[in-house]
Design a protein that fits this description.
The complex is a heterodimer of chains A (322) and B (510).
Chain A: H1 2-26, E1 33-37, H2 44-60, E2 64-68, H3 75-83, E3 90-95, H4 98-105, E4 115-131, H5 139-148, E5 154-157, H6 163-175, E6 180-183, H7 187-195, E7 201-205, H8 206-215, E8 218-223, E9 248-256, H9 261-276, H10 278-286, E10 291-294, H11 296-316
Parallel strand pairs in A: 1-2, 1-3, 5-6, 5-7
Antiparallel strand pairs in A: 3-9, 4-7, 4-8, 4-9, 4-10
Chain B: H1 2-12, H2 15-33, H3 39-46, H4 55-72, H5 74-80, H6 89-100, H7 104-139, H8 142-154, H9 164-179, E1 181-182, E2 189-190, H10 204-212, H11 214-224, H12 229-245, H13 253-268, H14 274-288, H15 300-324, H16 330-341, H17 355-388, H18 391-410, H19 413-431, H20 437-459, H21 471-492, H22 497-502
Helix pairs in contact in B: 1-17, 2-4, 2-17, 3-4, 3-16, 4-15, 4-16, 4-17, 5-6, 5-7, 6-7, 6-15, 7-12, 7-13, 7-15, 7-17, 8-20, 8-21, 9-20, 10-19, 11-18, 11-19, 13-14, 13-15, 14-15, 18-19
Chain lengths: 322, 510
């Protein structure tokens, strides 16, 4: 009798669990979704995430709580995403190149495989900038000068292993020049040093340069997008200038690996609708965010291709001390 | 500019904006007063809530929190010797002794008036001089900021208490804590012991709360069993009321002028904040005083110098932030994020495309500095009740508030454990009579000096003469040298044997 009761209980629990699971997917989301941001409140990624969240809520018909888990260049937050329950109730913002370069540089508690990319949101191309008083008018002039004066050109970036740093390394290899790297704690510090004439070249994203370009205080020498970003149509790409360098910071949303495919597709389509919402597009334009939607497959392929490139670069010339 | 100001005036005096400024200022005082909560965090948490508000309502709230919190930090600094914000450390030097001598209310009023005045001077500077001063900010490159940090570090020398060895140990402890984390310039991990959370370093708030808030909570709990402090506190409060009637405010005018100047100047320099402004101001005021030995023992000028300077830093830190998109301190950086949310691009466009709102925000900085005075003046009686609260309630409250605040910064339990661990270290340091302030200053200034020095040498490719290549650098070097050798010279100078005595390091408990 007791045995029978156990069997019945177990069976009932099993049925309810199964039913619960399938309901969870059909009616997803039934409870608030946590969105992890691996950077501090008030920073660029945080502002972008908090601006986007209400629009995803609108199209997903659920609520999203943004939680900041900053630290270790994003590693703390990425690890939290990778280690979360893959039930679709934890998603998070992913930033390249950090997401990819951190596991290359050091032992981490997450790998790219532990994260299921859902969709990309922003693709912010990198740029090479000088101040308007600078003697360099074009990228070629800069390269010619650097060839004659190795290490005389100082360039500021947002840090070791940042997209800016990797871009400059790529140019050094491609053009056969030597530049002197000066890392700063953030893009605004690089900009300050550039405007004050303390460094000769600033490498930072186009969105961080655009208002200064319009004002005539900063002269862009090139952008590292595949095609010219519509907001800065006069700035030539590196490819146009003969250097095959495409570099930038892609921000997107991912979930822990193993999340059910239906959930993945549902969130991806909500993000797509959010990005196409005219109201959000206005907000993004105000913040100079270059939007670029990629679905789960395309986003995942892009991330894997990036990793391939960074691995090659790391093997040839590691950018950080090991 | 006058046109824009006139356009902005009616916007600012709209009912909802005024209400936002009052609420913001009061909330700011509370945020500043609670150990573990910082202005940066307060504004950062607020930003997403302001999405749906009109821009000026949101910016009015932010301005209020910013000004309010800088003053709020002085309340626990004076009453409990727990600086509510990093910028309140210098306030503990004289504020806490004043409260202990029964002048708690007076110290709080001095802090309030000084904060409001500093804020007003700073806001006027922002409104009138923003564009020309922005170019001054750009002159500060890595070499100049390095010397500024070194100049700030010399202030440690006067905080060494009666035992220089203990003071230097404390400063050394701070310097080591400051090296923890991934090195900005090479990417190497230093003293991280393979702990993921340590790779971004030990946060200044974690350290400050651990050192300053946890040990007093232990002490309070211990004392509660020995004496009846409720009576004691009541006596202190009533005595203070009498004293405040007769205070000669005029004597503080020179201090206010000096402190506002220092605060405004430090604010404009990128990357330096109110914590540095208040300590330099306190030290300069002490040096200029006729009887420097009074400082650290309850000198009203000490409170005025610290509080006036840290509020004078506020609006001026926004000068490079608004005009160039370069934040002068951490709060200004978060405010930039807040502007972005409301579609305002920091930089020149701010004064062109969205000028009325920008000027409205700058006016809000001015108005909230004035509001601060009224809110603080009538609120002071409420705050003094803190002293009358039974320690058995106060001690667990301090620990609970600190825990919540620290957890909320990074949503990290690790930070909470770290804070408690540092709290134990702080408790031991107190028991060994080691001063805490040198450690905190070293954590703030040490990493700054190190990174900027290495950055300068990268730029100059190892040439040390680069450090002496600009006028600003040379001025800062000269100031640093004067600061270090002046006491020696005075002591050795013949015919002035008495002056030598003045230069004994001040006894500072914090």
């Amino acid at each position: 009798m007791r045995f029978l009761r156990h069997v019945l209980t177990a069976g009932a629990v099993g049925i309810f669990t199964l039913a619960g699971a399938s309901f969870a997917q059909a009616d997803y989301p039934e409870r608030p979704i946590t969105m992890i941001v691996a950077f501090s409140p008030g920073g660029g990624t945080d502002v972008a995430a908090r601006s986007l969240a209400p629009f995803i809520e609108k199209y997903l018909d659920g609520s999203i709580t943004v939680v900041n888990k900053p630290g270790a260049g994003g590693e703390v937050g990425f690890t939290a995403i990778a280690q979360a329950e893959p039930d679709g109730y934890t998603i998070g913002f992913l930033n390249t190149p950090n997401l990819i370069t951190i596991p290359i540089e050091r032992d981490t508690r997450y790998e790219l495989e532990n994260i299921a990319p859902i969709a990309s949101v922003v693709d912010d191309p990198g740029g090479f900038h000088v101040r308007s008083e600078s003697e360099f008018e074009t990228l070629d002039e800069l390269i010619a000068y650097a060839k004659e004066h190795p290490n005389a050109v100082t360039f500021g970036t947002t840090g070791i292993g940042s997209d800016d740093h990797l871009a400059a390394l790529a140019l050094q290899r491609a053009a056969g020049i030597e530049l002197t790297h000066v890392p700063f704690p953030g893009a605004s510090a690089v900009r300050a040093a550039l405007l004050g004439g303390h460094i000769s070249l600033g490498v930072f994203n186009m969105s961080e340069a655009v208002s200064f370009i319009e004002e005539g205080r900063v002269r862009p020498l090139g952008q590292m997008a595949e095609e010219r970003w519509p907001v800065t149509p006069d700035v030539p790409t590196f490819r146009e200038q003969g250097y095959d360098i495409v570099q930038g910071s892609i921000r997107g949303i991912g979930a822990p690996a193993g999340v059910p495919d239906e959930v993945l597709q549902k969130v991806a389509s909500a993000i797509e609708q959010a990005i196409n919402d005219p109201e959000f597009q206005q907000i993004a334009a105000d913040q100079s965010l270059p939007l670029r939607f990629m679905g789960p497959q395309a986003y995942s392929d892009t991330l894997n291709a990036l990793r391939e490139g960074y691995l090659n670069l790391w093997q040839e010339s590691p950018w950080a001390e090991q | 500019m006058v046109d824009y100001l006139l356009q902005a005036l009616p916007l600012v005096f709209a009912f909802d904006v005024m209400l936002a400024m009052v609420v913001g200022t009061a909330a700011g005082v509370a945020i500043g007063a609670l150990p573990g909560l910082s202005t940066t965090m307060g504004i950062a948490v607020l930003i997403p809530l302001t999405f749906t508000m009109p821009p000026l309502v949101a910016l009015g709230l932010m301005a209020g929190i910013y000004n309010g919190a800088m003053y709020g930090g002085s309340i626990p600094a004076i009453l409990l010797r727990i600086p509510g914000t990093p910028a309140g450390i210098a306030t503990t030097f004289d504020g806490y002794p004043m409260a202990q001598q029964g002048h708690g209310v007076q110290a709080m009023r001095i802090a309030l008036v000084s904060s409001a005045l500093g804020g007003i001077v700073s806001a006027l500077t922002l409104i009138l001089l923003a564009p020309p001063l922005a170019s001054v900010a750009l002159l500060f490159g890595p070499a100049e900021v390095f010397w500024l940090a070194v100049f700030g570090l010399t202030a440690i020398s006067v905080l060494l208490a009666e035992n220089p060895v203990k003071g230097l140990l404390s400063a050394g402890f701070g310097l080591i804590i400051g090296t923890v984390g991934i090195d900005q310039l090479t990417g190497n991990e230093r003293f991280t012991f393979d702990v993921l959370e340590l790779t971004s370093g030990i946060g200044i708030l974690v350290l400050l709360t651990g050192l300053y808030a946890i040990p007093p909570a232990f002490e309070l709990a211990a004392k509660a069993m020995l004496v009846n402090p409720t009576e004691l506190a009541r006596g202190m409060a009533s005595k203070a009321e009498d004293a405040s009637e007769r205070f000669a405010w005029r004597s503080l005018i020179p201090t206010w002028i000096r402190a506002s100047g220092i605060g405004v100047a430090i604010g404009i320099v990128p990357g330096t904040g109110g914590n540095i402004a208040s300590i330099i101001s306190w030290n300069e005021t002490r040096r200029a005083a006729r009887e420097p030995e009074r400082f650290g023992k309850g000198a009203p000028e000490g409170v005025a110098a610290s509080e006036c300077a840290n509020n004078a830093d506020n609006a001026s830190a926004l000068i490079p932030a608004l005009t160039l998109g370069i934040p002068g301190n951490a709060v200004a950086a978060v405010i930039l994020g807040g502007l972005l949310v409301h579609g305002m691009q920091p930089g020149p466009a701010l004064f062109r495309d969205t000028a009325p709102v920008t000027y409205g925000f700058m006016l809000a900085m001015l108005i909230t500095a004035v509001l601060l005075f009224f809110i603080g003046w009538f609120g002071a009686r409420l705050f003094i009740y803190v002293l009358q609260m039974p320690p058995l309630l106060l001690a667990p409250m301090i620990i609970a508030m600190s825990t919540i605040g620290i957890y909320a910064i990074n949503n990290s339990m690790f930070d909470v454990w770290l804070m408690l661990f540092i709290g134990v270290i702080g408790f031991l340091m107190e028991r060994l009579r080691m001063p805490l302030a040198p450690a905190v200053l070293a954590v703030i200034l040490g990493p700054m000096a190190e990174a900027e020095l290495r950055r300068s040498l990268l730029i100059s490719r190892g040439d040390f003469s680069f450090l002496f290549s600009s006028a600003i650098s040379l001025i800062l070097v000269a100031l640093t040298i004067i600061m270090v050798i002046a006491p020696l010279v005075r002591r050795l100078a013949p015919g002035k044997p008495k002056r030598g005595k003045d230069e004994h390091p001040v006894q500072v408990d914090g």
